[in-house]
Amino acid sequence: MSTHAPRAPEGPTTMPTPPPPLAGTTTGPAALRPLIDTVLTALHDGAHRRDGPLPAGGPDAVTPRMRTATHPLIPDHGTGPHNALRTLVTALTEGAADPADPLCTAHLHTPPLALATAADLAASALNPSMDSWDQAPAASALEADTTAALAAEIYPHQPTPDALITTGGTEANQLALLLARERNGPVQTICAANAHHSITRAAWLLGLPQPVVIPAPTGVMDLAALDEALTRHDHPLLVTATAGTTDTGQIDPLADIADLCATHGAELHIDAAYGGPLLFSPTHRGKVHGLDRAHSVTLDLHKLGWQPAPASILAVPHRHHLDPLHHQAPYLNADDDTEAGLPDLLGRSLRTTRRPDALKIAVTLQALGRTGIADLIDRTLTTAHHLADLIAKTPTLDLYDRPTISTVLFRPTDADDTTVATIRRTLLTRGQAVLGRAHTDNRLWLKATLLNPHTTPDHLRTLLDLVNQLANDLAEGNTPR
After folding, report:
1. What is d(CA 464, CA 91) in angstroms, rounded to the nearest whole number?
2. Are β-strands 162-166 and 312-316 bridged in parallel, bridged antiparallel, or unpaired?
3. In 3D, which of 316, 60, 368 has the Cα closest to residue 166?
4. Whole-number Å distance between alpha carbons of 299 and 314
């Protein structure tokens, strides 16, 4: 009796479907080229469908439209790469708030440069993981050189300054407090009422005492109050100053604060996430004079650096200040590998897996140079001053103050706070303009944070006309739709 199983009947052989192509190696670029073309077409078509700085209708219109376009998100059988890219990218673009639109001015939400975005594509295709040298041989060298160069801009007179790349000002500020704690023990942080919320959050996360918050009656740290707080509180002390507040863009008196810290033996961290890139402008770098006297500095390049987020650094004057971040994981930085010359990357971040964000930064720095970056900064700040001039000349609008960087606060004359809030939300719902809000001087203000170097005076006049028209409608009792 046969012990073999019966043979299956002969028939046509079905070849298994090959897996989708990858982005890397020598074959990746050929696979990417048609996909990128589909993405670019979808970006174009979605922007035309939106036709403005953000989609009209508010959440009640945007959310169901997005869900209808993308349902089901996980089908039983895939729709194919081009269809999926076309569908989702078009829908996302149609429903996006577009920082490249000159009327999208609410936040520190920069329109990224095309060249930086292209560099980010290369970073995604190559996918270096910045937690060990054998995952990122060239990228680790590029990051080391880029961070050292940026740190030298902040600390030009120090022999070995360095910086870490972070996801933003929040992470950088948290690292600054962590390093201060590791140097000094449980430091008492002192900040002003204008400080970014991440300072208080970082103290909470790190188990540090709640920050002492001193007044900022004119929008910047009060020096007399700082002197009193430094005198009254026990050491160790860490003062956190701000170079570019989120509400008004004002800059604390950095040099005077550094003097007080030196007198009282306190350390100084400066959150220059917004204002730090002014260093690249010969015209405006004086506004951040004193930055080099801080024990650490936060600087974002996804604000006045026109990078796709994230692109932020925490800089320190001496490389050894980063030593407390060293961490051992034998599969990533074994001692014998390090002794043999392989760079140890784990101390370069609190994260393990992370992207090579240095690439887009380095491409931008090399492509534009100091003069090109300075030109972008100068153009943007000039535009902010032009908007302030237009507001000051418009009798139906009140200007809060001349802009320090590129933030301009204004409001309709004689309007109450409810009207100001209604104007902002109505512009959002109509998809006409994106303005922020700031509460200062005991009133609510509309906030325009200008970061688009392509904004023209006509764009600014259109923005003010929209605000004035809505204010008139509300004053006449017309309910906006």
Report:
1. 30
2. antiparallel
3. 316
4. 6
The domain 118-367 having CATH identifier 3.40.640.10: the answer here is yes
Q: Is the whole-model pTM more than 0.90?
A: yes
Beta strands in 52-100 (DSSP E): none
Which residue, 184, 224, 229, is CA-closest to 211? 229
SS3 408: strand
Q: Minimal CA–CA distance to 69: which of 95, 43, 45, 48? A: 95
Q: Is 263 exposed, middle or buried (0-12, 13-18, 19+ CB in 10 A)?
A: exposed
State the DSSP H helix or E strand holding residue 465, giving kind and residue range, or none if neither. Answer: helix 457-475
- In a 10 Å sphere around its CB, with 0-12 CB exposed, 13-18 middle and 19+ buried, how is residue 46 labelled? buried
Residue 452, classified by CB atoms within 10 Å of its CB into exposed (0-12), middle (13-18) or buried (19+), is buried
- Evaluate the omega torsion of the peptide bond into residue 156 and state whether it is cis, within 30 degrees of 0: no
Q: Which two tokens stand for residue 411?
A: 């409001």
Residues 217-274: pLDDT tens digits?
999 999 999 999 999 999 999 999 999 999 999 999 999 999 999 999 999 999 999 9
Give 399's strand partners.
410
Cα(357)–Cα(354) distance, integer angstroms: 8
Contact of 53 with 104, CB cutoff 8 Å:
yes
CA distance 191 to 168: 19
Q: Which CATH number fits domain 369-475: 3.10.450.350, 3.30.465.10, 3.30.1330.80, 3.90.1150.10?
A: 3.90.1150.10
CB 157 within 8 Å of CB 142: no
Any idea how long the chain is? 481
Nearest-angstrom CA–CA distance, 160 and 315: 11
- The residue among 209, 201, 271 whose CA lies nearest residue 234 is 209
Q: Indicate the SS3 state at residue 470.
A: helix
The rounded Cα 346 to chain-centroid distance in angstroms is: 23
Question: Token match 């004689």: residue?
Answer: 414
Q: How confident is the model at residue 2 (pLDDT cuts 50, 70, 90)?
A: very low
Q: Residues with Cβ < 8 Å from 64, sequence gap 6 or more?
A: none
